Input
Amino acid sequence: MSALRRCLLVLSLLALRLAHAGQPCTEQPIRPETLSKAFGLALKTRESLDQSGAEVVMLARVGQDLSKWGLRYTHLGYVWRDSPSGRWTVLHELNQCGSARSALYAEGLANFYADDLFRWEGLILIPPADTQKRLAASFRSGAYAVMHEARYNMLAYPFEARYQNSNQWAIEVLADAEAGPFSGRGEAQAWLKRAGYQATTLKIDTATRLAARMFRANVAFDDQPFDRRMAGQIDTVTVESVYAWLARYAPGARRVLVRL
Output
């Protein structure tokens, strides 16, 4: 990328409104260091996306340290280029200020990373070209919004439509694009089960579950199967489980790691 193009890109990123959705609502401004790193990682990501030749990819970030659960990535969204010369737009579901609600957002790459991440890296997953075309059609038509459930639960059960987490929305949109259109989320979940999707199982004891339910509005366990819940086995949709399933379902999918 030439120096002029890089400068123009930085200016365009600076013009973006930095969203705080999905984070606790505070009056604290984003720190300059965080802003600088978000822009830097956004530039690296855009360069990788431009070189990939892709139209639609999935993109994950590391918002917090989940190593105690054997996980690295916390949040998954889509990045879509709406025309050959168009800008890359992130489409994702975000929890609203730690509440029990979520909304869908379309924003720039810098916004996606401007959350004071635990690690400054992104993982790009490039689906096969035919899957990309079906996803792009969903984004153009607005069909992806049908898969959204505003009742948010960070640990939502994958095969129950009562709640939803952001990674669950992403995989249900993919299911709808691949095998739909579906009339609702239940059909997408049934198809994912038939297609071999396997959730991540987290071991969470009773005391931890009670504390989380009492003090976190965005965590619930009542959608989990009773027997597994009582055994402390909580099944949910994680970035790792989505990537593992897609690698089996579409072996042609490619991964690209970007980091500062």
